[in-house]
Amino acid sequence: MRPGVAIGQREGYVAALTGLWKRLAWALAELEAIAADPDELYDEESVLDRLPPLQYALHAASELAVGLRPPVGGETAHAELASALAGARDATAEIVEALDHAGAVVAETLVPEWRGALFRVRLARLRVATPRPLPAELVAEPEPPARGDALAATMLALSGAAVFAAGATLELWPVWALGLALFASGLLVYSPRP
Hints:
Blueprint: H1 3-36, H2 44-67, H3 75-101, H4 104-109, H5 111-129, H6 149-170, H7 173-189
Helix pairs in contact: 1-2, 1-5, 2-3, 3-5, 6-7
């Protein structure tokens, strides 16, 4: 595939995901608000009126995700997003069913799993939103040429330390001064790369 075609496909995919997310964001925020406050489940009538449309929004988003064709290299992240949307839809369905048939006490036991499924959607979105670069976009930086600066600095520092120690032991100040000069020049020779 030519790089221009791949980049065009990626831009179309990103636009489709943006549309999907705009449709889903409000529903996901509402679901997370309900899941964050399990006491809200005890107002069963209100929650049972709110959850089905939100569950349908997850279902529609999951269907849209299945219909999208991810760019090269984004297949795994896209599959994770589709799976996360389906999982959140199913977890929401379990909450609705538990509320409808068994009540809020039973539904509350499912809330941690439900919250995890909703979080997984956000995590999958992040992974899709930061795709790996296409192989054509990868530019290998050339290896910097080997520098002898580090070796020269090390040798100057070691020899300077030895000369300084010898001068200090023999109490000859010109020798230890030469040792200090050699040691300091080692610091001047080496400059780390940015």
